[in-house]
Design brief:
Blueprint lengths: L1 E6 L9 E6 L8 H10 L2 H8 L8 E5 L7 E6 L10 H18 L4 E4 L11 H15 L8 E6 L2 H12 L1
Parallel strand pairs: 1-6, 2-4, 2-5, 5-6
Antiparallel strand pairs: 3-4
Helix pairs in contact: 3-4, 4-5
Bound molecules: ligand AR6.
GO molecular function, one term: O-acetyl-ADP-ribose deacetylase activity
Organism: Phragmitibacter flavus
Pfam family, one: Macro
Length: 167
């Protein structure tokens, strides 16, 4: 399995699935969630409504509709509250549950945004370390996944992931 960092808009990526940093309603919002709903089109919210929401640290699967990606894995990251409320474990769980859904559906390529690091205020460096460690640990378990892309919107995040990938 190959890990890489890419800088830009996740809605442009032609992968089997992109991951959405959603909220527990799954009905859309700002940030990457808003961008994904806009690019996928209005049919997405109809399917999301049928999913009945999603708990923090869990993930749900939908089609990608008008996106170049075939599917969307919606996960709900923790809101950063100082770090003493299980935020790190919940963030790791977002990555793990998303990878498990991808694997269960025999997907080979998936792209993650930097979950929780925008509106939910999770510190970027700690978040990148958790994301990188969880995904690389999962590498030993996977039958189908071949490529995982860390999609970074900011220069700072892109540099963080490049550094982690070069270690
Ligand atoms: N492509 C890739 N990454 C993006 C894009 C994009 N088009 N747009 C923003 N990012 P955020 P959160 C980056 O705030 O912190 C929503 O309202 C952004 O720079 O989207 O998990 C949901 O509905 C940051 O690095 O998600 C929830 O209510 C990362 O995506 C809440 O925000 C995550 O930032 C979730 O907050």
């Amino acid at each position: 399995m190959k890990l890489s960092a890419w800088q830009g808009d996740i809605t442009k990526l032609s992968v089997d699935a992109i991951v959405n940093a959603a909220n527990s309603s799954l009905l859309g919002g700002g940030g990457v969630d808003g961008a994904i709903h806009r690019a996928a089109g209005p049919d997405l919210v109809h399917e999301c409504r049928l999913r009945g929401g999603c708990k923090v640290g869990e993930a749900k699967f939908t089609k990608g509709y008008r996106l170049p990606a075939r599917f969307i894995i919606h996960t709900v990251g923790p809101v950063w509250n100082g770090g003493g409320s299980g935020e790190s474990d919940l963030l790791a769980s977002c990555y793990l549950r998303s990878l498990e859904i991808a694997e269960m559906n025999s997907l080979s390529t998936i792209a993650f945004p930097c979950i929780s690091t925008g509106i939910y205020r999770f510190p970027s460096k700690v978040a990148a370390e958790i994301a990188y460690r969880t995904v690389s640990d999962y590498m030993t378990n996977t039958k189908h996944l071949q490529k995982v892309t860390f999609c970074c919107f900011s220069d700072g995040d892109f540099q963080l992931y490049q550094r982690l990938l070069a270690e």
